[in-house]
Amino acid sequence: MIQTAQDMKTYRKKIHKALGNQFLRKALDNFASSYKASRVKAFEGIDLEALRCRIADNKDHALPHLESLFQQFKEKAEAAGAVVHLAATAAEANDIIAQIARDNGVRAIVKSKSMTAEEIHLNDHLEAEGFTVTETDLGEWIIQLRHEGPSHMVMPAIHLSRRQVGGLFTDVTGRPVDLEDIDRMVKVARKELRPAFLAADMGVSGANFAIADTGTIGLVTNEGNARLTTTLPRVHVALVGLDKLLPNLEAALDILKILPRNATGQALTSYVTWITGAVECAASSTGKKILHIVFLDNGRLALARDPVFSEALRCIRCGACANVCPVYGKVGGHALGHVYIGAIGLILTYFYHGKNNDRAIVRNCLNCQACKSVCPAHIDLPYLIKQVYGNVLKDDGVKPAKNTILSFAMKNRKLFHGMLRMASVLQKPIVQKDAGVLRHLPFVFGKSQDFRTLPALAETPFREQWPSLRPRISEPVYRVALFGGCLVDFVSPEQAVALMKLLTVHHVQMEYPMGQTCCGLPAVMMAETETAVEVAIQNLQAMSPCQYDYILVLCASCGSHLKEGYRRLLASKPELAETLKTFQSKIMDFSSFMVNVLKVDPQKFVQTHTSVAYHSPCHLCRGLGVTREPRELLRTAGLNYIPCADEDVCCGFGGSYSLDFPEISAAILNQKLDHVESTGAEILVTDCPGCVLQLRGGMNQRGGRVRVRHIAEVVAENLKPR
Ligand code: SF4
Ligand code: SF4
Asked: Given a cut of 90, is residue 438 above it in pLDDT?
């Protein structure tokens, strides 16, 4: 039975429980590491990017024509002896399938794995109608016996240990099963399931593809149980989401190339079954299989017409968005999904299972972009998640107080900056001056934030230091503007000072446009789109992109939002299109500017060979696609870069995420810091002030000896004296 938290209080309890499940965390960690390595290997020699683009294109071409593709499919499949139905809702699909069973005198049903059947809670309905239903996929059978839902779309029982499964099998069979012997457990399952196959009058399957021009369905499986389900019983019912319709086999074969590789890192799946019409069947009195194909709408046609969310229907259910999600890796699918799991689950739940089931889970996203980077259908999952969150807030008509306060302040730059200045005065009694941190946290943060120290606001923000600091370079090689962002400006101005020092040495004139304000990403995280748009327009105007060769960022999150986020936000403002294009073409991160534009010379740096580990910020490596340059810059600047495990995995900051979900943030952070400490490096370097805040705060709190610095600071410190 699926019990998804409908409010934050209940959800926090659920998260707390999931985080306490040590087996779950270890199992998901182990899977995530092996998955990443196998995936890379599985895609060797394949032009993955071209394949992803073709899949997205094929899906986008099919989605506006689902009704005509359905008609075409129906004609072809019925000509081949199948009966094709269209169910508008989950209830209708359940009724159709139960009626097919009654009409054919069915008593016992076997089922192969189908997320669409999970979506409509088919088993519950059929059992309530008096039929016996046996799941035959091993994972699905296990969770059916435990009366729970899947915790992963491809590996439904990944949350269970072998001992739990062995104990369950002992109870079910009444015979002791060795709790360590997995092979033996598989044999037990086979022995228990074989009679169910032989006794079944009806098999129910899903389908990965429905090919319109031949009326064929395609099933991709690993265990062979779907072959038995679709061939042995005299009646076969395939339940298929309308989104599985494709015009032809070629489009399906592209998906087939990517599906097993992306799902589990396998080059091939064990079984691919294509079924066209009613085939011969000895169990049937007519000698022909009774084949019914039930297509499910359940909101898909409306979704296909939605200009923002239709993208979600490109999903091929590979489950990869969960495999790489750091939040999923800590709490598992029962806490990060309803029926559909992981990033796509946070989106589809709203449309298929209603806002109440999505209200809490949809907030549980760090915006780390890992899901987007592996999605084979190029779905912008983090963006859609924030849009769904916005819809939930709108539907509920109630916003968290922080949304209202921050939105109001952010729209007015002077008020916003005034509030930050006032906070820097008010914090004085709790600042530990020598360390630049707050001695204890203000009560608004509560105990939950104890997993890291928090930095004090700077006494003098960078914008106030700037007039006296501004260098004047005669005949500069470039004129650049710094987009500081709130953290550099008000918390870590020393990072901007380091940049200025480096630029001055390289004869680059830096400017700091004073009209700039927060990049607006926090507003996006809070689903305050209107505020995010207003702030984007203010920055576009303030940064006067035509006046500079480059606009530099020291914050990867700001950079990625200015470059990519603004494109989505300002898409409906054609009057700003030209300025936006110029602005985006000039945004560059610090390391790329140093390496690719200035081509910095190692001769300018003292080769200290200090050992440094590196944390690759999500919005730099995935948002801006920058991976080589920071590492190259560290080496050029005379530092000894030591690779570290999971460098590109999120640090758990996510801006306001770490305030909303401190326990998950802490779990992700601590794993990162364990990896860093195991390298033996003296310094941990990164290129985002938000990551510095999180990593340094965590390192301080655990009493670690690794210093955490922004890359601009360590590079500037290694400059040779002039
Ligand atoms: S953006 Fe990151 S945290 Fe959010 S769903 Fe995707 S992988 Fe998970
Ligand atoms: S959203 Fe993308 S990554 Fe996630 S299951 Fe669907 S296709 Fe796979």
From this structure: no
554 Cβ inside 6 Å of ligand 2: no
Same domain? For 451 and 591 the reply is yes
> Ligand 1: does its nearest atom lie under 6 Å from the Cβ of 382?
yes
What is the DSSP pairing of strand 587-589 with strand 550-553? parallel
Number of domains comprising the chain: 2
Question: Does the predicted TM-score (pTM) go above 0.90?
Answer: yes
Q: How far apart are CA 341 and CA 152, in angstroms?
A: 6
Residue 312, ligand 2, Cβ within 6 A:
no
Give the three-class secondary structure for 484.
Answer: coil
In the predicted model, is pLDDT for residue 103 greater than 90? yes
**For residue 370, how far is its CA from the centre of ligand 1 (angstroms)?**
6
Structural domain containing residue 496: 428-597
Give the Å distance between the CA of 32 and the centre of ligand 1. Answer: 14
Among residues 547, 573, 597, which one ends one of the domains? Answer: 597
pLDDT computed for residue 666 by the predictor: 97
Which protein residue's CA is at the shortest distance from atom 4 of ligand 2?
321
The residue-averaged pLDDT of 211-228 equals: 95
| Nearest listed ligand to the Cα of residue 325 | 1
Burial degree of 129 (CB within 10 A; 0-12, 13-18, 19+): middle
Beta-carbon contacts of 63 under 8 Å, excluding residues fewer than 6 positions away, are 243, 304, 310, 313, 314
Burial class (CB in 10 A: 0-12, 13-18, 19+), 356: middle
The CATH number of the domain holding residue 491 is 3.40.50
Does one domain contain both 702 and 653? Answer: yes
Rounded to 5°, the CA angle 176-179-184 comes to 75
CA-to-CA dists, residue 616 to 274, 592, 620, angstroms: 44, 14, 7
Most ligand 1 atoms within 8 A of CB, residue of 349, 371, 380, 387 to mutate: 371
Residue 663: give its domain's CATH number: 3.40.50.1860
pLDDT of the residue at 426:
86
Task: Report which protein residue has its CA nearest ligand 1's atom 6.
Answer: 371
Q: Domain boundary residue among 597, 620, 644?
A: 597
Q: Give strand ranges (E) for 227-305.
A: 235-241, 245-246, 271-276, 290-296
How far from 285 is each of 235, 288, 448, CA to CA, in Å? Answer: 11, 8, 66
